[in-house]
Structure formats: C-alpha cells, structure tokens
Amino acid sequence: MSWDEERIAATINRQFILSHLHSDEQARLDQPLGFGDGLTDDTYLDWILEKARRLFLILVDLELTDQIFGVIDDSWDDDDLPIPLDQIDHLKLTYGRDERVEKKFFQRQFHYLVKSIRKGDHVHYEGMEVVPLELAEKRSLTQSHIDKVYLPGKLDTLLLRRRVSLGPLSGRMPEEEFLAGLDSMRVIDHKHIQSLWASYIYRGDGYLLMSPVNDSNLKSFLAITPQSFKILPKQSRRILVMNWIHCLADGLSHLHSKGLSHRNITPSNIMLDVDYQVFLGDCGIFSHAAAGGGEKAGFDKASYDYAAPEGAPRPSASALAHTTHSRPPTRNPSTRRATFPVSPTTPSSSSTDNSSNYPSSNTSYSSAHPPTSPHRHSKSNSYSKSDPQKADIFSLGAIFLEILSFLLKRSSKSFSSHRSAKNKTPGRGGGLPDASFHKNLGQVETWMSMLAKDASKKEDKLFKGVSHILGLVQRMLSLDPLDRPTAKEVEDRLYVILTDYCGMDKDGNSEVSLHCSHNMTSVKQVSLSFDQLRLASQKAAAEACARVAGTPANRGKNSPESMSPTSPITSPISMKSEEAWRNDPIIGMPMEKSWQAPIYAGLYPSSAFIKLIGD
C-alpha cells in the first residue's frame, strides 16, 4: 500500500498520534521543544504535524513511536528523507545498534515518499521507490507483461498496465526509443481507441498505463457470446452491435486524422469493456518481444487473415507448415510491416499523405535495425499501394463483416470455413487451408450476398441499412488501395446509413441512438445525395444485368443468364460518373472501378448481391 501526500494529510492528526503513544508519552506532546531554548513556542505535537508526519508513520510501522521525541530533539524532519542506510544509525532508534531495524527503516521510508502519477505524466522511479498503483487482479506482472491496476483509493480509475523491457540487448528496447514512442502515443486521445494515460520507468523496465481497459475482445466474444450479453433485451443487443460499426470507424478516423495508422486491426485487437462498448486495441508501437512477451513466432495468422493484399505479412517456411501453402503476392518489400516506432507526420486534408504510424505489435524489435527518423510519403507516392491507412480500411471492412455476421446469427467459424471452401490445398505438413480475406474475395462476396438476403427478411428497421453497409464494405475490400474510401468517408457514410436507413437517433434522445456524435456540414444535403445515389444505383443495376444477359432490362430476374456467376458484372454503386463521385458530399472521391473477383478467388461478384445492394 502506497502513501501519497493526500493520504498522509488525511491520516495524521492529534487523535492518531495519541493512539500510538503511552499515557506518559502523551503528556509530553504538548510540551515545548527541548532544543528550543525558549526561542519558540512550538510543541512536539506541532513539530510532528508540520514537519515529521512521515517520520512518525515510519516509527509506527517499526513499533518505535516512543523514539519520536529523541528524533525531534536531534532536529530530524521529513525534509531529511530519504536517509541513506549508512546514516540511519544517527537516529539512535535503539539503545544498541540494530542493523535489522536500520535496514527496515531504510526500506520503509520509501512507502511514504511516493511520487504521484497523474494523467499525462511520465515518471522515473528509482529502485527503492514505491510506484503508487494497486493491483486490480491477483495475477502479477511476473506472470504476464500485461495486468490491470488502479490508483490508491480510486477504484474507478482502472488502467491497463503493459511492461516494456528496456536496454541494449536483443529483445529489449533502448530507453530513448521508448521515450520517442511515448511521444507518438500522446497524440491519441479518443474514447474508442486504447490510449496512453501515463507512463513510468522502474527498475530497468518501461511501463505503459492505458485506458480504457478491456474486459474481453471481439475474437472471444464471437467464439463464445457471454451470458451477460445474451440476457440483454434483443433490441438493446442489436443497437449495441450496430453502434460498434460506427464507433470503430469513428476511432479509426481520429487515428488517421493524426497522420497515424493502426496496422493491427484483428478481432483479438478489437476490445470490449464491461458494458460492451467497443474500442480499437493497442496500436502496437512497441514490439511483442520488448513488451515482455519473449520470442514470438514470425508469422501471425490473424494479422495475415485480416490484412490487406498489398501489406499481408509473408509466412516463413516453418509457418507455412501450420497455415497454408499459398503466399500473398508482394510486389514491393516496402509493403512489409515496419519494425520500429516513428513519430506522427502532419496529416493532410485527406489524411493520406503520410506513412508515420505504429508498427504492428506482432513484430520483433531488433537492435540490429534501430529506429530511424520519421518518414513521410512524398506527393508522388502518397497514394501508393503500401499506404498503411488504406490497409487499415481493408482490415476494418473485414471486421465489419464479422460484426454483421454476428448480427445476422452467422458464426465467425462458419464464415472462416466459407472463405476457405474454394481453397482446399493444404500447406506443407497438412496445414489448414488459407481463410484470409484478401485471398478469398470471391467467397467473401458470396457471404455478403447471404448477409444481404438475411437482412432483407428482417422487419426491424435497424436491418434496412445492412445492404448499404455491405455496399460500403465492398469498396473497403477493393483490391486496389486507391479504390478504398478514407476512414473519414467511411465514418460519414455510416452516419448517414444508420440515421436515415436504420432509424437511429443522431441526437441521443431515444433508446435507438448513435453512441458517437458526428460533425457534418449539411446533414440534409448528404441525405438527399444518398437517396439520389440509391436511385441511380437501382437503375444502373437493371442496365448492367441487361447488358450482361444480352436482353432488355425487364428480363426475368431469376433467368439463368442474369444469375450467371461467370459474367463480369459491374457493381451498380460504381457506375456513377466521375464528376458525380467527386461532387457527392458523402463520398467526395473519384469514381470506383468495377470490382471483380481476382483469378485466384475463382468467382465474380454475384448478380444476386448486386440486386440486393441496389434495393
């Protein structure tokens, strides 16, 4: 238990002091100081209350409170703390020198010399100093590099603590790079991003105090839905889940606006608190090995499965034996993930002219490749295919599909099996087939068609926007990064869909309300433009089906020709003119290219899906 100034002041008073003294000693408290020679009217009680509160508490712990008078007579006070071990014998706490008592005094004094830690602080604690944090769980950091703590006496200030091993050795991070990483993290302060609350260094390790604190993550939630969630009213559950989509987009939009990228958007890094509010997990500025996790396998399957095609990590030969024989195409070594933290760049108006970001937490820190100065994209490559912000959009689109699947009562396990259904070639050693999103976009498309069909059967108005969200997700999963929307555009589109089509209240005045507020120049104008886009999409869908089938637009929708999976159909949402795309207040971006499933996916977008999106 730590003692800060506030707690000491609240504890030490006349009654407390009297309770720890014998009756004959109590009478002496109100006597003038023995060394004052009549020059002061201060008493021993005055000295304790004003100058020796900590000294008295230490003597209470040692059960030597009767020695307080001799200590005061020798003019000792709290300003003399901490007292070096070889000087404690000058206090004359015992009749004969007792090294055991002296050592105990030396150690105990640091419990009353606590340096407090507040939001935004970075504190350096010396070896014997006490860090003013209490464990919220029985498990200690010796068992894991992550635990939960709170400030003394403030149970409502729950924090996630993460240890980062510092030093020049392999698997550790130099202190100067740790401090540079903290500077990058301080620019993030958002309720839907796990952000840095404070930090400190203690006994050769760095510690991050993060907030908010997660109770679970999306991966575990999708695997086994908690009973506490199941007992919520059905409508409350649906509202929560629909809000997750907008809240995640809101958080990522904030991150990108700071010129940063996340680079580790996976179900295990989408966090849920005890109230099932969602937020993006640690951006991974510090490597797993440096963060006390020891050595980690070089291939992270979750990161691979949810990664964008241009930035998917390439599995090593050993990892292939446990995953798949196929490797994602990589055109440029620059698409690999960085292994060092860098500082944020100055964000542009589109939040794309940057490459400063957080390295993935699954990378290993290597002292052989020290961090370099911040790198910034030049204008010529600001929209390069290795743009990590565009990769974030792809990963977030995959997460949206997982959330929508749960909403429509389809399991994540079934979704994974569906993605790998056309890719049954096992890896070396009999590994699992590749179930990644970027390798199986054709199967992802058919799954989206099933979700759209499921949603169309629901009477609840909340489901009326699902097909529009799927249309947005289709763009987020574009093979070409240039065709993906920005995080801000995703946030804006979702806001319109959830308020105009799902009937969610943007002002928070009803039970069916958006969790996040939203700033938009003209909501009315945006809503009208979206309605116009919807009508144009319906018309374009009919024309596209007619062209593919070679028949008039009013041909039967269930005819074999119009449902052919081998026909290269253009998505109706991409058939607006380029000028219309640029001027649309919702999209505000160039015209989308027609999305066609890659050859390795083995399937083109289905006409059934296109029709449902148009509806």
Question: What are the main properties of this structure?
Answer:
615 residues; 22 helices; alpha+beta; single chain; Transferase(Phosphotransferase), domain 1; six-stranded mixed beta sheet; Kinase-like_dom_sf; ATP binding; three-stranded antiparallel beta sheet; 3 domains; elongated; 8% strand
What does this molecule look like?
- α15 runs antiparallel to α18.
- This protein has helices at 5-11, 14-19, 23-28, 44-51, 53-62, 68-73, 99-108, 175-185, 218-223, 227-230, 234-257, 289-293, 301-306, 317-320, 388-407, 412-419, 441-456, 466-476, 487-501, 523-549, 578-583, 607-614; strands at residues 122-125, 134-135, 146-151, 154-165, 195-202, 205-211, 216-217, 270-272, 278-280.
- It is 36% helix and 8% strand.
- It is elongated and about 110 Å long.
- The N and C termini lie far apart (63 Å).
- It has 3 domains: 5-112, no CATH class; 134-381, Orthogonal Bundle (Transferase(Phosphotransferase), domain 1), CATH 1.10.510; 440-614, no CATH class.
- The chain has 22 helices and 9 strands.
- A hairpin with a 5-residue loop joins β8 and β9.
- It has 615 residues and is of the alpha+beta class.
- The strands form 2 sheets. A 6-stranded mixed sheet has the order 1-5-6-4-3-2. Strands 7-8-9 form a 3-stranded antiparallel sheet.
- Residues 310-387, 415-436, 551-572 are annotated as: Disordered.
- Residues 135-496 form the Protein kinase domain.
- It comes from Scytalidium lignicola.
- This is Protein kinase domain-containing protein.
- InterPro entries: Kinase-like_dom_sf (IPR011009), Prot_kinase_dom (IPR000719), Ser-Thr/Tyr_kinase_cat_dom (IPR001245), TF_kinase-domain_protein (IPR053083).
